[in-house]
Amino acid sequence: MDPRPAPTADPLSTAEDLGRYVLDSPSSFHAAHAAAARLEEAGFTRLDETVDWSGTGVRGRRYVLRDGALIAWATPADVTPAAGFRILGAHTDSPGFKLKPRPTTTAHAWYQAGVEVYGGPLLNSWLDRELRLAGRLVLRGEDGAPVERLTATGPVARIPQLAIHLDREANKGLQLDRQQHVQPIWGVGQPEDADVLALLAEHAAGGAVDPARILGYDVVLADAQRPAVFGHGGTLLASGRLDNLSSVHAGLSALVREAQAVEGGRHIAVLAAFDHEEIGSGTRSGAAGPFLEDVLVRVADGLGRTAAEHRRALAGSVCLSADAGHLVHPNYQGHHDPVNRPVPGAGPLLKINADQRYATDAVGAGIWAEACGRAGVGYQEFVSNNRVPCGSTIGPITAARLGIRTIDVGIGLLSMHSARELCHVDDVAALGAVAGAFFTA
């Protein structure tokens, strides 16, 4: 489709709000909890998966947290037995580094943290920048039962690059050993004083805790630099975790903004923000796991639907698999398709792949075009260069698991999987506008 102007809704304020959400979300667990806080402010009520939902009710505005994932929905007041779901699927994790067991090491007075590579990050982009440690701690409670607490430090760590004086060939092709060269430093001193877990315990949400209470942890590194709007005319946004908090934010903002309209409409609007997409989604909180199916079945039960009515509802449902895509890189133009060449500021991407690495088909493309038209938003097609392997998303997983027609979309980026990615502020606003139109169709 020919590019059209992005929506007239204020792109700057939308990009700045996305930046605030990123700052609140240095880990997938923080992203899920930060989303939950915004939903609570908008009148959504949390449901506990371990209790009976029939008494609480699945109607109205509800959400569920499962580890670093969240599913939220708004239900029409007059929902029919076969009313379908309008689902926006995204993911809360980003490629980077995860803390190993026994993480504290020292070398020549440097305190270091043992980390494992998570997903497929651009390793060099993590060098020589201030980093945070963030995630969840599992603590021994006062009654002996485990309890969870979030934790997040300020800027505390750094992965230092070797000086060029000691590697004169570095600019001819940097080679990083994934074990030896990416272990961050976080202090100096005597070995007996170093303790990464004590540092995390000091920054636990709600106040410092005794590190001896820590039974387990899921902790990652995150970029400590604030997201920034910059460039000519303030059109560019640089930030960590745009892949894929840009999509989570778009779906979250649209669901909050359009909840009242959904309640007067005909579809059940759902935001599904999964964890672990960057490592294949095959977990209890990932898209290949049972989370979405579990919730949709329980919603159907709560609405009094029969199994046949639930299947009818799924057959009439649509999922937007919203994940970031690639803009044409001006310095590497040959890596892109020679005809379909997405540019910044011309709208979000409709992602297409002949091998169904993206789940978009012709019918889905029509649904997407209709939503963009109602939102007044232009869009662009993305397809890979035949010589460049195509990545994938939660789209094919959702389509295969549930049989729901699924469409792969997302904003375009430069530097995807870098510690700090780049997009156009108009595209951020455009995706949120289309998400709202999709939910209220």
Automatic annotation (TrEMBL):
Keywords of the record: Aminopeptidase, Hydrolase, Metal-binding, Metalloprotease, Protease, Zinc
EC number from the UniProt entry: 3.4.11.-
Co-factor(s): Zn(2+)
GO-annotated biological processes: proteolysis
Molecular-function GO term, any one: metallopeptidase activity
Group of enzyme by EC: hydrolase
Pfam families given in the database record: Peptidase_M18
GO cellular component annotations of the record: cytoplasm
Taxonomic superkingdom: Bacteria
Entry's family note: Belongs to the peptidase M18 family.
Record's protein name: M18 family aminopeptidase
Organism of derivation: Kocuria sediminis
